Fold this sequence. Notes:
Elements: H1 2-14, E1 29-30, E2 38-39, E3 46-51, H2 52-58, H3 63-67, E4 73-77, E5 85-89, E6 97-101, E7 104-105, E8 126-133, H4 137-140, E9 147-153, E10 163-171, E11 175-186, E12 189-203, E13 218-234, E14 237-251, E15 254-255, E16 261-262, E17 267-284, E18 289-306, E19 316-335, E20 341-362, E21 367-387, E22 391-402, E23 408-419, E24 424-435, H5 439-443, E25 445-446, E26 449-450, E27 458-473, E28 476-499, E29 505-527, E30 530-543, E31 556-567, E32 570-579, E33 582-583, E34 602-603, E35 606-618, E36 621-628, E37 647-655
Amino acid sequence: xxxxxLATLALLAALPCHVHGQTTALPDTIVTATRLPTPAERVPAxxxxxxxxxxxxxxxxxxxxxxAVVPGMRLAASGGLGQQASGFLRGANSSHTLVLLDGVPxxxxxxxxxxxxxxxxxxxxxxxxxxxxxxxxxLYGSAALGGVVNIVTRRAPADxxxxxxxxxxxxxxRTLRGGLGATGTVGAxxxxxxxxxxxxxxxxxxxxxxxxxxxxxxxxxxxxATARLGYTPQDGTRVEALLRWRQNRLGLDGYNDxxxxxxxxxxxxxxxxxxxxxxxxxxxxNGAWTTGLRGFNxxxxxxxxxxxxxxxxxxxxxLYRGRRAGVEWSNTLRLPSVGPLSEGALAFGxxxxxxxxxxxxxxxxxxxxxxxxxHSTGGxxxxxxxxxxxxxxxxxxxxxxxxxxxxxxxWRAGAVLAVPEVASRVRLAAGSAFRAPALYERFGTxxxxxxxxxxxxxxxQGWEIGTETDLSLGGRxxxxxxxxxxxxxxxxxxxxxxxxxxxxxxxxxVDRAKIxxxxxxATLRPFSWAEATLAWTVTEAFDATTRQRLARRPEHxxxxxxxxxxxxxxxxxxxxxLTGRSPEGAFASYANSGDAxxxxxxxRAGAVLxxxxxxxxxxxxAVFLEGRNLTNSRWEPINGYATPGRSLLFGTRFxx
Length: 656
C-alpha cells in the first residue's frame, strides 16, 4: 500500500491535471453539480459530461457502456446487454451512486440496497449524461455518497417544427437495432417522441474455463420509449410533462444445486420501468427568482423465472416491485453584489418522497418477502458567489428525515480558483453524504433472516483537491489539457449481515471503510483532426477494521478514448479499457471450477478494445460500423462472468 501511495504522489507531481473524459467541449453550463446553471470551468466538483455526439460516434448502446470510460467509475458487469452491471464510483459501494432521469431519482426501491443496475437502460433518446463525483447528499439526499449520474433526455430545437431522427443497424450474434423519433417546436409548444428496440442472440456469460459452462447464450430483447410535451406561454414560464418506459427480456445464469456458477437455459428474466414527471416553473421579481413545482412517479417491475431442467432441479419465481414517488418545490434566486462578491445565487427547496416495495423471491422451501414503505422529507439550500474575477465559492446544507430512523444533515463547500496567467484552474471541495437503509434491509423476512427496522443511515465525509491546466504550443492555444484530482473519504455505519442467534441473521450498522485515490489524465490535440484522452484512476479502498481491500475496487483503471477525422466525412473513435486486479468478495477463485463455497481471491486484470467508424454520407445521413471487443478478450469483470466476445454492427443514422 505504501508503494502505491508513493507512486500516486509521484504521478500527482508529474501530471497537474483533471480529465473530464470527453472528446468534445463541455456544454456551456452544468446544472447537476450545483442545481444552479454554472459554467463548467467554475463548478467546484469533478464532473464528466457524455454528449449525444460522443454516444453516437463511440457507439454506446447502454448506460453501462457509456459510463465505463468515466474517471473514478468502475463498472462490474456479469455479461452483455441486460445482465447486471454494478457501478462503484470513487471506491464507494454499488448502492452509493444516485441515478437521476432529468433530475428525478430512479434507483430501484425493491433492490436489496437500492443499488442501480446500469446494464438495462438504452440511450436512443438521451441527449447527454452528467456524472458528478464526490459526496452530493447536500443537494440530492440519500445514496449520493460516491456521486450522482443524471440522464438527460433529448431537447427540442427552438427553430424547427419537425425534426425526425433515427437509426437502423444489424450485425453479428443476430443483432438487430432500430430507433425512430421526432422533436420540434410549434408556437408555444415543444415535443419529443421516440422509441428504440434491440434484439441479440448475445454471448455465453459464464466463463469457458468453468466446467459448468456449456456455451448457452444469454439473449436480450429490449424496447424503450420517451415522450415529452412542453408549453412555454411566455419567456420564463414553462410547463412540461415527461414519460419514459422500457422493457427488457433477457437470459440469465446462476448457481446450480451444487453451489457452482453454471449455465442455465431455463433461467430468464423481465425488467420493466416507467417514469413520469410533471413540472411547472415561472420567473418572478423581474426574472431574479425562478420557482418551480414538480411531481414524479417511477415504478420498477422485475421478474425472474427458473424451471427445473436436466442440469438443476432448482425452481425460482421471483417478483420484485418497487415504486418511488414525490413532490418537489425548487427555487433559484439571483442575489445582488456585496462588496467584492458578485454573481451571487441561492438555490433552495423541499422534497417529500415515498418508497415502497412488494416483493417475493425464492421457492416453496425458501421464500424472501418484503412488503413495506417509507416516507422522507428533505430541505436544502446552497449559496454561491464570485470573489473578484477569479475565485468562485459555493456552500450547501440539507436536512433529511425518513420514517423510523435518525435524521441526517449533510453539507458541502467548494471553491474554484482561476489562474489565467498559467491557463489553470484549482479546485477544492469537501462534504458529507448518507444512504438511508433500504426497505429490504429494514423489513425483509426469510427463513433464518429478519430485517432490522432500527437501522441507522450509512454516512460518509470526504474531500478532494485538483487542478486543470491548458498547454499551448506552436500556435495551438489548447494543444493539451492536463490535470489531476486527489480524493479521500471515510464511511461509517455501513450495513452488513450479523447473527441474532445460531439460526437467524439480521443486518446492523457494523462496518467502516477508508477510501483514497487519484484521477489522473491528459487530453491531447496534436492536430485539428485528432484528439485523444487518457484517464487513469488509482483507488485504495479498505475495510477500516480489518484493513482488507474492498471487493471489486481495482487499484488501477485506465481508459484511452480518441477521435480521429482523417477525412472530412470520416470519424474514427477507438476506446481501450484496462482494468487492474481487484479482490473478489462474492464469487469463487480462479483456482477451481466455480464453487461458491471456496475462498474468493483476486480478480485478474484485463483489457478490451472497441472501435467505431462513422462516415457522413450527407449532412443529415451517416453510416457507421461498430466493433466491440475486437481482440476477443476473455477477461472477466466479475469472477466467472466473461466479457461479451467480438461483435460487429453495421448501420445508418439520420437526423433531418
